[in-house]
Specification:
single chain, about 260 residues, alpha/beta, Rossmann fold, 3-stranded antiparallel beta sheet, 10 helices, 10 strands
C-alpha cells in the first residue's frame, strides 16, 4: 500500500503564490528533465532501479552514478563526471552518505535542485561522523578491515539497514556490500550546495542507520520541502519508491521556480 507521507516546509502552492506575487514568470518555468541518482555507503547504484523505472516511464532522462566509495573527493568526481554528460539542467538526488557527496557536487552549475533521501547534509566544516555523534543512530557500528574500509555486519544488515525489504533481498544486499573507506565519514564538507540551491528531503521515520531526528534537523536547516514516510527503514528508496519518485518529480517541476523566487 502506498504510504501517505507527512509534508512540511514550503508547499507547492505557497511557492507558486510567492513567485506570482513577486511579479515573475518563474512559475511557468519548464520542468527539469535530467535526473542523476547517487547511492550511499555500503551499497551500489542498483538499489535505485525501482525509482529509475518509475521516472523513466514518466519521461525523465535518468542516470545512476556508481561511486567508488574510496574518498569523498573521488566520489564527488564520479558524480561530476556524470553531470558533465547531461544535456541541460538536472536534479541531483542522493541517499544516505550520497547526501554528503551531492552537498559538494551540487555546486556544479548544471544542478537546478537537490533531493536528499534519508541522507546526510553536512554544513561547512561538518562531517558525518561528528553529526552522527550529536544524534546517534540505533544501528550497530560498522566493522573495519585491516586496510581501513568499513562494512556492516551481514547478520545485522537486514534489521539495521533494510528492515522493510523482503528478507531474501536484504540478505543478498548484506552479502554484496560495497566496502567503504572509513575516511569518507570524517572528511569535512567545504562548500555546501544546499545553501544556494533549492532542496527537497525525505525523512525515513524508522531509520536505524541515520537518526530520523538528524534527518529532520538537516531538512529544517536547509529549508527543504520535506516529506516523512512513517515506519520506513534506511532503504526507503527501495521499499517506498513511489513516494521517493514523487518527491523527485516535484523537485523537477519546481526547482527553477524556487531558485528564481529565492534570487528576487
Amino acid at each position: 500500500m502506498l504510504a501517505k507521507p507527512v509534508r512540511t516546509g514550503l508547499a507547492a502552492g505557497t511557492i507558486l503564490a510567492l513567485s506570482l506575487a513577486l511579479g515573475g514568470t518563474s512559475a511557468l518555468a519548464a520542468p527539469v528533465k535530467n535526473i542523476v541518482l547517487v547511492h550511499g555507503a555500503f551499497v551500489d547504484g542498483s538499489g535505485w532501479k525501482p525509482v529509475y523505472q518509475m521516472l523513466t516511464k514518466r519521461g525523465f532522462n535518468v542516470s545512476v552514478v556508481q561511486e567508488p566509495l574510496t574518498s569523498l573527493e573521488n566520489d564527488v568526481a564520479a558524480v561530476k563526471r556524470i553531470l558533465d554528460l547531461q544535456q541541460g539542467p538536472c536534479i541531483l538526488v542522493a541517499h544516505s552518505y550520497g547526501g554528503t557527496v551531492i552537498t559538494e557536487a551540487g555546486n556544479d552549475p548544471s544542478v537546478a535542485g537537490l533531493v536528499f533521501i534519508a541522507a546526510h547534509e553536512p554544513d561547512m566544516g561538518e562531517t558525518e561522523a561528528t553529526n552522527g555523534k550529536r544524534m546517534p543512530s540505533a544501528a550497530k557500528p560498522p566493522l573495519k578491515t585491516a586496510d581501513g574500509f568499513l562494512y556492516l555486519d551481514p547478520s545485522r544488515f537486514p534489521d539495521d539497514f533494510a528492515a522493510d525489504l523482503p528478507r531474501e533481498q536484504a540478505e543478498f544486499e548484506a552479502r554484496s556490500q560495497m566496502l567503504t573507506a572509513a575516511g569518507v565519514f570524517t572528511t569535512a564538507v567545504a562548500d555546501p550546495a544546499w545553501k544556494v540551491k533549492p532542496s527537497w528531503a525525505l525523512v525515513a521515520g524508522a531509520d536505524k542507520i541515520i537518526n530520523p531526528d538528524l534527518e529532520r534537523m538537516y531538512a529544517k536547516r536547509a529549508h527543504s520541502v520535506t516529506v516523512e514516510v512513517a515506519g520506513a527503514s534506511h532503504s526507503v528508496y527501495e521499499s517506498h519508491p513511489r513516494e521517493v519518485a514523487a518527491l523527485i518529480e516535484e523537485a523537477a517541476q519546481k526547482a527553477r521556480s524556487r531558485a528564481d523566487a529565492a534570487r528576487r
